Request: fold
Amino acid sequence: MQTIVTDSPEEAAGYLNAGGIVAFPTETVYGLGAGICRPEAVKKIFRAKGRPADNPLIVHIPKPEDIDTVAREIGEAARELIRHFFPGPLTLVLKKSFTVPSEVTAGLDTVGIRCPSNAVTKRFLGFCHCPVAAPSANISGRPSSTSWKAVLHDLEGKIDCILKGTPSDIGLESTIVDCSGAQPRLLRTGAVTIEELQALIPEIETAVICSNDEPPKSPGLKYPHYAPVARIRLCATGEPVVSAKDSSSAWIGMSSPPAAGRHAFIRQCGTTGEYARILFDFFRQCDALGIDTIYCELPPDEGIGRAIRDRLTRAAAGH
Ligand code: TXA
Ligand code: MG
Reply:
């Protein structure tokens, strides 16, 4: 299959409306979409990514008020979150409406819904004839794509079209909150922080499940994620780099690295926002350079730093 690359949201939506699968930019990471009214196209997403069939997709809507077309039983906590964070980097899990086919939700009675804020995404979604089911546009288990070039690298020849946009502003996937049960519950950390969520909904359950032993509330949590080919070593600030045998190592963090001369590639980030924005691209650059070990300094456990720590921990577990 030939993959068309375009900067026209209308042209890209045309491929999707014709039953194709199309990658598109968002402020979090790039998505790989199919119309929810085209179940056969939704199935193609799983094939192109090598995604396990029991891992549901997020449905993207162009306007906050469209949520009523894909969800039901939207309670007060969910309404409050929608008022504050839609459009933006938040996904809500709610009871699904009949318009959402089981191919999207992997058979669940709930659906993840997001309304992106990126201007190009909004234009693209506006041209699509129905809401767009989309996971991140990467090979399953690998770092998410934060640029159209990363999408091309992973998925060229496997998808119909890539809508070109700028690199993703945030660089990490959306925060996910499950509002389908009695109590709202955080399923994935992201740019909407725990602090912001708690300020709005004090009773929110924020103990994110990281273990493979418990039954996962979010099916995707049990799979390895975000892993580059290179090995990931997590380190605390100031911790000396231990391995002397690495033929080629890289370092990313907020302070200047101990043993800087040892590394072939270094990124020192000025803010946690910058760390989040460049992390997955840094992983991909390291793989392109043939780096075999990436030392990652853990950022402070607050704000978006929690989401960075979560992704780093999962990437390290992927080996
Ligand atoms: O920022 C994002 O969320 C990006 C952009 C493209 O919107 N999308 C994204 O999708 O990260 P994906 O598929 O890589 O991650 C979605 C996560 C998975 O862990 C999946 O299991 C979970 O959301 N999820 C989807 N529907 C769910 C549901 N009904 N209940 C619980 N978890 C759900
Ligand atoms: Mg993903």
The CA atoms of residues 71 and 97 lie 5 Å apart. The chain has two domains: 4-206, 231-317. Residues 210-215 have pLDDT under 50 and may be disordered. The longest helix spans residues 272-289.
